[in-house]
Records
---
Amino acid sequence: MHIGLKVVSIVFLVNVLTSCDPVHNIEFINKSNSNIKVKLNLVSKNENYDLMQNAFGDSIVLHIKKDRIKHIDFGIGVWDEKEIMELTKSLKSIEIETKDIKTIYKSKNAMNGVLNNNSKGIIFKKNIEIEITIAIQ
């Protein structure tokens, strides 16, 4: 009976890893000492359904309280370089604003870099996690 449980566990694990795609997201994690605002400015002829579903006008604005997380869902799939590049094509800029600092990623290269550098996952890169902090100098 102990061997049967191991076989069932292995079959279940293999099935999970090979048969279903994970849900992929972009998460903005506020680790700063205040509320923040994240704004994704979209290109005018945007064809990215997931972005448009979350947009109000030509942008997506997230107000994130201290020690909170907000995310944008992108359905089933994983973040590979091609998918991140397609997402970047739909963006004009990414703005991250704390009470003291406003950072704007304007170029496709800069946006692609911040998204690629923050993609996370063990087997599949299913999340992009962007942590917003304030460096004390």
Note: Strands lie at 23-30, 36-42, 59-64, 69-76, 91-97, 102-105, 119-120, 127-132.
---
Amino acid sequence: MGPYARIALLCEGVTFDPDGCMNIIRIISRIIVPSTVALPTNCMRKFVFGIVPNGLLVGETPLTIQVERPSKQRNPVTIPFNLPQQSATGYTMAIDLNLEIVEFGLHWINLLFADLLLTRIPLSVLSEQEIRMASVQ
């Protein structure tokens, strides 16, 4: 029934060509926190998502990006999203996402549209020291 997630990812940046095509720069699946940085710390990333609505949702619909930490604590951010009309190709957006990193481990970025879970994106947060120790073993 939809809506459907066409794409959802974290990246370093996004550019748009004159014809409207989106260029995604450096897809991120993990963040390595330098040993000189203490937690909590903030990390700005682009969150890119594309949806294909089912045609039933028109007008302002809440879009929620929910960061679920390894401790299961969830920090939702809700953005009003306007669907002006039916689109066969859907909508693609890139928004700045200020991630507050307070713990190491596997985080999940949940994308909810009108309170319907569309997709989940895994994000590993590792310490630089943890990476060094793993490479020695």
Note: The mean pLDDT is 84.
---
Amino acid sequence: MPMRITGLSELSARLAKAGPELHALIPPACVESAQIIATQAESNANSFSSKIGSQISVVATEGGAQVRVAYGEYPHRLEARVMEGDGQAPSEFAHPVFNQGGFATQMSHPFLEPALDEKREEAIAPVAAVVRHVITGG
């Protein structure tokens, strides 16, 4: 059974016309989306660290947003990255033991990647709503 898709030329025309409106509305929607991820990442990080969660923030960028973790000075600024590990599954890593010498092993605690996985659909919603609004004209 053949399938017929209609309305592509109308959609293309609306998107071309909506360029400036999309340019104005997408960045705030991206910040809203990033905040959803950041809030979950903070909750995840707070489950194992009293320091990392409070250092998670959302930063607006040209045309979008980023979730950032800005944690302290060296050597502590490495903690968040090391604790995230590969972002997928907890894994063991070795770290120096300060003031005692030697190394100790510890399990990572991914917090940012799981936040994205947990809140993906919710985070897409603000941007999707803007695009839907602009395409439908209302």
Note: DSSP finds four helices and four strands in the chain.
---
Amino acid sequence: MLLKKSESELLDTDLATQRILNHLKKNLTDDYICYYRYPPYFTTTNFTPSLVLIAKNGNISVFKIYSYTDEQLTKISDGFWLVNGNKEENPVKDLEDYCYSFEKDLERPRNNLRGKVKIKWSACFPFFNKTKRALDL
């Protein structure tokens, strides 16, 4: 897996992303390019995914990685998250909007990629205790 990064000094201290990257490196072949905070697509919202994987077959996986523990993030619902006792707007909506815009731009009639590229997204919580709880998005 080839890693491209725009803010490499951040990766040194970004333990949550390092954990996900290590998992990906162990489980993926070299048929991917991985972008760290270096999105191959930009929107007007300035949303920046944590990682974007582009496979040689053109499929794209977009990851937003959160460093919350399951003690900090205690509730996830469609509209809000409960983080450290505070109600916050669900940030996954930004991830969904980013992927929707990306995919729709690829589907434009003039684009030769129409119908050939699939975009999947994931919200990752590498510091959650998997055996204790799983929260559905």
Note: The mean pLDDT is 84.
